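Q: What structure does this chain adopt?
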Amino acid sequence: MTATTEPLADLSTTTLLRFATAGSVDDGKSTLVGRLLHDSKSILTDQLEAVEAVSAQRGQDTPDLALLTDGLRAEREQGITIDVAYRYFATARRRFILADTPGHVQYTRNMVTGASTADLAVVLVDARNGVIEQTRRHAAVAALLRVPHVVLAVNKMDLVGYEEKVFAAIAEEFTAYASDLGVPEITAIPISALAGDNVVEPSANMDWYGGPTVLEHLETVPVSHDLTACPARFPVQYVIRPQSAEHPDYRGYAGQIASGVLRVGEAVTVLPSGRTSTIEGIDALGESVDIAWAPQSVTLRLADDIDISRGDLIAPSASAPAPTQDVEATVCHVADQPLAVGARVLLKHTTRTVKAIVKEIPSRLTLDDLSQHPEPGQLVTNDIGRVVVRTAEPLALDAYADSRRTGSFLLIDPADGTTLAAGMAGAAFASRPETADQAPVDEEGWDF
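A:
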């Protein structure tokens, strides 16, 4: 297979940008992604030929670029995106990992998946429809997931005569809404994905716009992947004990460093037990090293024999998080069944999974005006709300605002393993004193 790309610069010197696209149904996400890949010469020749053949069979005069990302048969038949489609491409200036997420309200959960690791979110709006409820929902999810950069792509400008006032009104409304949500940076770009206006090349039809094209902004927006600036966190995935003749006493704790830097000789605390030790050795790629950093996968050896198992967290003693059983967080509910007060769930945090109970649902976010609906009693599909969860065992969580890796968690249905909600831990976790009538223990051990 041959590609239509020109030779790229040395990719080892370029940065990586993870970004996600979002928007309502028929706003043109897949067409935008297809146009971006096509005009930046980032698709293979045989892929383009296949799209041209399918488009011709449908009687279309030009290739339907949306077919480049709508890979499922159901997606092509219905003309909508259902699953998250990941695409990898590069230009001379930057490498990209793109998550094309669904627009239908039924698949908002997939938008949460795609945006959870994104540095930037592209939210599309149909210029004819303006900001609608699903647009506000996607903005809220981007803000909830702490996506640092949001691009508002006002699409289908060709269908409104490339009118500047249409774009300006939509940009003003969205920017005000997203700013109230706490989105730190918003860039509005008028485009026509179908015609290619302002996607890769500047538009001759909108000379009133002097900002960057979508690709130009993606290539130049500042991103930082310096996980080493955060306190070190090491969730244990596996305990290695060969007990062989060659390594009779070897005991190592394998996992991926979630954040920060770990050094041989550093004092560490094992959570939630609180036991302390020092790092005696670090093994990486079969060799002993003195220092390791996120996101390397390594094996730690400690100076003391401590009872450590999968799900424990190793952190420097000077910056270890305080374990808690009372988790206050914001969640995006993604399951079909409601999440109600009193629900028994499993909470998965890094490599640790514990039993938990939803003790309170203090509020639900109203997307129209960003008000909080107090004490809703339950959250239904796509709701965003505050919850208080009591866990059976202590967890070492960080605030999500400080660490997207160790401040996030999932709520899971213990009956069938269905993911119920994606949670982002709040800034503070105040443990409430237990009383006899507050924490009864039932026969199955679910009330804590």
